[in-house]
Amino acid sequence: MTRLAATEALDTFLRRTLAIDDAVLRDVGVDNGRIPLHTPLFRGNEKAYLAECVETTFVSSVGAFVTRFEEMMARQIGTRYAVACVNGTAALHVALHALGVGRGQAVLCPALTFVATANAISYTGATPIFVDSDPTTLGVDVDRLATFLETRCTRRDGAAWYGDLRVSVIVPVHVFGHPVDLDRLLPLCAEWNLEVVDDATEALGSTLHDRPIGGFGRCGAFSFNGNKIITTGGGGMVTTDDPELGARLKHLTTTARLKRGVHFEHDEVGFNYRLPNLNAALGCAQMEQLPGFLAAKRRLAAGYRDLFAGVEGVTFVDEPSGTRSNFWLAAVLFDDLATRDRFLDETAALGFETRPCWTLMCDLAPYANAPRADDLCGARSIWERLVNIPSSAWMMRD
Ligand SMILES: Cc1ncc(COP(=O)(O)O)c(C=O)c1O
Question: Of all atoms in ligand 1, which is nearest to the CA of residue 89?
Fold first, then answer.
């Protein structure tokens, strides 16, 4: 059987246009000859900053790099506060906890997300309600969410109720860095008194009308996992403009310890969620390179856009209008599941790491019985048709 035109196009682009061969791969630390989906690049001050941590012995959660990394993130997102966490899941969890989310409440989140979004909601004791996604943004389908609120929720004391659960928060997810339609989502949230905790874990550097994603809701949550646009090994951050919330987040992530000299006093059940200085050192060095990573990913996206525009049966997932995506992971959509699977098999055989979207939350064992806002047909259609393709910043050399 001949290969799909999309497979041939990707092969030519990666091996000939970008000329990614074993030597290029070895140079960026890949020694198995396969073109990975996404790997980090350490070409800045990483080693110097890490050495500084070791030499000064500040390797744990107290240290100058943690504060510096928080300041860099607050500046980048345009919020007054940024609180470093051990990972993005912890960032989401502590943000929800700080807003008082817990048992007896429901939190809306897309069915099409990484499991961490739903897990963070579950850790609080709240019930996730899965909402549908829009194939043009890959994020919350605002029309379908409005229909759910109007037809399946009741309004009491200005809030939305789903049966006896108060629907208190929504966690929109900016999938692969593409901004959600916040222009329409935020007014709907205001109308229903829903707090917004933005899962911006994949969207560092993305903007809507030139405003950074992660600065729109009550809180934004970021991840610096090894596969993200910048990495701290493992790490996360909560951003907020609210001084009281910023202080509370810092308190909660540092075991809720009071400043009482040498004494260990804690005024509530806190979390050991503070990012170690070692990881923050990596974060500072990586943040310095963020503009370069963003520019490289834009050039790579432009290359993919041009490439797939001329190929039948495949659509490049582009940034929604009015937004700038960080193009963290490039993605294409096929017409159906069978073609998606054929592309996955063919590209794997060629040595390219390609990946389907996450299994929908409602199809996972822990969430099989969680409520769904509707039939989630948009999310399912995306899941059936989408494939992520190699997206590392180093692929686009100057
Ligand atoms: C959408 C989404 N939410 C949450 C997370 C959790 O981040 P972390 O892996 O740092 O806990 C990730 C990243 O892995 C993610 O992609």
Answer: 11
Q: Which residue type does 281 have? A: A
How many residues are recorded in the chain?
Answer: 398
**Token pair in block for residue 248:** 């509370």
Most ligand 1 atoms within 8 A of CB, residue of 225, 273, 279 to mutate: 225
- Give residues (CB < 6 A) around ligand 1: 87-89, 113-114, 116-117, 173, 199, 201-202, 223, 225, 236
Ligand 1 center to 129 CA (angstroms): 18
Q: Are 326 and 297 in contact (CB under 8 A)?
A: yes
CA of 225 relative to ligand 1 center, distance in Å: 7
Q: Which residues of 241-273 are buried (b: 16+ CB within 10 A; e: fewer)?
A: beeebbebbbbbbbbeeeeeeeeeeeeeebbeb
> Across residues 127-144, what is the average pLDDT?
97
Q: Which domains does the chain have, with CATH numbers?
A: 5-42+289-395 (3.90.1150.10), 46-288 (3.40.640.10)
Centre of ligand 1 to C-alpha 182, Å, is 20
Which ligand 1 atom sits closest to the C-alpha of 227? 14
pLDDT at position 398 over 80: no
CB distance 102 to 124 below 8 Å: yes
Q: Which atom of ligand 1 is nearest to the CA of 224?
A: 10
> Could you give the 3-state DSSP secondary structure of residue 293?
helix
Task: Fill in the amino acid letter for 63.
Answer: G
Which amino acid residue places its CA nearest to atom 10 of ligand 1? 88
pTM above 0.70, yes or no: yes
Residue 19 burial (C-beta neighbours within 10 Å; 0-12, 13-18, 19+): exposed
CA-wise closest residue to 218 among 249, 248, 247, 195: 195
Question: What mean pLDDT value characterizes the chain?
Answer: 97
